[in-house]
Amino acid sequence: MFGKKGLVGIDVGHYFTKIVYFENKKGVIELISAFKERTPDGIVSAEGVDENIFSEFISTVFSENKIRNKNVAISLNSSTVISKTLSMPLVADEEMEQAIMWEAEQYAPFGMEHVNASYQLLERNEEKKEMTVLIAITKKDIIESYKRALKKAKLNLKIVDVDVFAVANAFFVNEPDKAKKHNLFVDVGHVSTKLVFTKNEIPVFSRYIDFGFSDMLDEASDVLEIKKEEIDLIFEPSYKDKEKKESFLNFINDKMVMLYTQIQNSITFYKANILDMEEDVENIVLVGCLGALTDRLNLEFAEELLKSKIITFNPFNFASKSGFSNESVVLEDSSFYTIASGLSLRGLDL
């Protein structure tokens, strides 16, 4: 699709920007780069990115990390995107775009001239004369801000994805045995939590929850009187204050009950309003901050409450890492790179 060089995935988070780059080397997928940089304040808003700050930032990041591939993929926060999975009558290929855009117009909150609408054909059933289509609609201004900023940085924007769909894409590549199952992906970021339900590798329903890890850490800092700069050290094996560490982890697990309850409500809504039949979600897949903390969370309680198996995965597992030496990225911190990995994978013919 984009040649052996593929795409560089750029996940612009409110706190960190994550970069992942896979390349096809003689039929072997190699992890070339994976790192994160602190996102400059004020770079992201509901209207897109600050073009000057972002272009200077991303240009410096590519230069300092010696990334020569100029073709990139970015993700939009799902809170800024309207996405729908639709079943439609099957139409001829030459009529497909017009038919899908007509459907998309029904969901656009503004006139079609003010939005960017795209689609992906997920399934084609010749026997039933039906097709399943994923549509995504967002403000045109958001896309244009990224285009202009990346052009200033002398980068080529090739793909715009949605964060939760990039997560699912990374999972399908790394866990093919689980890809066809009924899965719920939970991505807890610093500011918000995104959910997406998939079945047979098809996104069925997504939801945005106003629950971020940074607010929880701020509260922990105040309640437990732990300095914010000390919180990162708590997770290090060398941290000596066992009592403070235990208090912090107990606090986090107590707060997680609020998130589990919201996830439970989302599953209940999903079963009642989206599914055609009563069916359990087999796997709840944790990524982002939660994925990195699975060995410190009370998952037995969560599994009992949500009645699903809770798992995580490493988005780098499928790739060769022969030329990549940062073990902490591919082991302890891998969950933070799930979105960026899913974006880079869009550029490879897998």
TrEMBL record:
Taxonomy, superkingdom: Bacteria
InterPro entries on file: ATPase_NBD, FtsA/MreB, PilM
SUPFAM superfamilies per the UniProt record, alphabetical: Actin-like ATPase domain (SSF53067)
Protein name stated in the entry: Type IV pilus assembly protein PilM
Source organism (scientific name): Hippea maritima (strain ATCC 700847 / DSM 10411 / MH2)
